[in-house]
């Protein structure tokens, strides 16, 4: 009888971690809850640090607002255990890559001490918590999966899905097509500015293209009424509006039409497109 009892396996409800020799299922669940709270708090601190960086900035830097918004959205995803979604995995990768780029390249251009210190702090916080968030997104709060096996598969699948979403023709709807054009617009600016060694502007537009592609994916799945995508549309509308303002200032100083005229109308129409979809989504959600 004793040997039979020793060979029996305990089973637990779905979502509860299996016990080990050193901890009980209850203790394992407590650990997972603590991890979740730490990651959620980390994202919120990152968002606050980007807002602080925006406040000490000499000019309106719309990318800081975008980064703060992304961090806040990711904190909600962590709190509601949604980091496993492709949407948040993509956002974590974008936030992580941008923070690393800022830390080693972009922040070097800042000369005001307080701005530089806040930028470095924000980049470090974003780097740490985006990596943790992406890791828990692919491994789960219990970290049961093997990282070395899971990570290459996740990255390969993520790249494949991104390329398919970007290049799919014809798009599933007019909204999807609009976001697709916005994504190409941001990528084109990023490529041109990178070629001119304007790395900050290039990185900002790569980050923006991640958001517009995420919105295209939501439009394909008819999910734009979701809270995350409403928030992303708010960010997109503001960032493209700020971009159009800069192009308008340059356009106004030139007597003839040039490329800045096209850039202005492209950015302005992108802002309006996001705003219209935002208002439509809010109206549908209230129905």
Structure description:
The protein has 287 residues and is mainly α. The chain contains ten helices and no strands. It is globular and about 75 Å long. The model is unreliable at 1-21 (pLDDT under 50).
- Helix and strand content put the structural class at mainly alpha
- Which outline best applies? globular
Radius of gyration: 22 Å
Mean pLDDT: 86
In terms of DSSP E residues, the strand content is under 5%
Instruction: State the helical fraction.
Output: over 70%
Q: What order do the SSEs take from the amino end to the carboxyl end, as H and E? A: HHHHHHHHHH
Largest sheet: none
Beta-strand segment tally: 0
Total of DSSP H or I helical runs spanning 4+ residues: 10
Q: Name the poorly predicted regions.
A: 1-21
Q: Report, as a whole number of angstroms, the end-to-end distance.
A: 62 Å
Name a few traits of the molecule.
mainly alpha; 287 residues
Describe the SSE topology:
Layout: H1 2-7, H2 25-56, H3 62-79, H4 86-104, H5 113-139, H6 147-167, H7 174-195, H8 199-220, H9 227-252, H10 259-286
Summed up:
The chain is built from ten helices and no strands. With 287 residues, the protein is mainly alpha-helical.
């Amino acid at each position: 009888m004793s040997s039979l009892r020793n060979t029996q396996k305990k089973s637990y409800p779905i979502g509860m971690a299996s016990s080990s020799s050193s901890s009980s299922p209850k203790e394992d669940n407590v650990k997972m809850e603590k991890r979740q709270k730490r990651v959620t708090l980390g994202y919120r601190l990152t968002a606050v640090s980007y807002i602080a960086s925006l406040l000490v900035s000499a000019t309106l830097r719309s990318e800081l607002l975008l980064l703060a918004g992304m961090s806040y959205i990711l904190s909600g995803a962590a709190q509601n255990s949604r980091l496993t979604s492709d949407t948040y995995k993509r956002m974590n990768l974008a936030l992580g890559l941008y923070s690393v780029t800022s830390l080693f390249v972009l922040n070097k251009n800042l000369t005001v001490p307080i701005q530089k210190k806040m930028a470095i702090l924000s980049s470090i916080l974003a780097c740490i918590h985006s990596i943790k968030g992406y890791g828990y997104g692919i491994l789960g709060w219990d970290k049961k999966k093997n990282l070395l096996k899971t990570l290459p598969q996740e990255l390969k699948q993520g790249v494949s899905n991104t390329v398919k979403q970007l290049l799919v023709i014809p798009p599933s709807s007019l909204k999807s097509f609009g976001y697709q054009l916005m994504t190409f617009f941001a990528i084109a600016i990023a490529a041109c500015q990178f070629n001119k060694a304007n790395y900050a502007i290039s990185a900002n537009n790569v980050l923006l293209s991640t958001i517009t592609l995420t919105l295209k994916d939501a439009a394909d799945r008819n999910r734009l009424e979701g809270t995350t995508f409403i928030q992303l549309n708010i960010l997109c509308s503001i960032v493209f509006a700020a971009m159009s303002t800069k192009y308008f200032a340059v356009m106004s100083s030139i007597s003839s039409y040039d490329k800045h005229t096209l850039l202005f109308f492209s950015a302005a129409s992108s802002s309006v497109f996001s705003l219209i979809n935002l208002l439509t989504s809010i109206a549908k959600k209230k129905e």
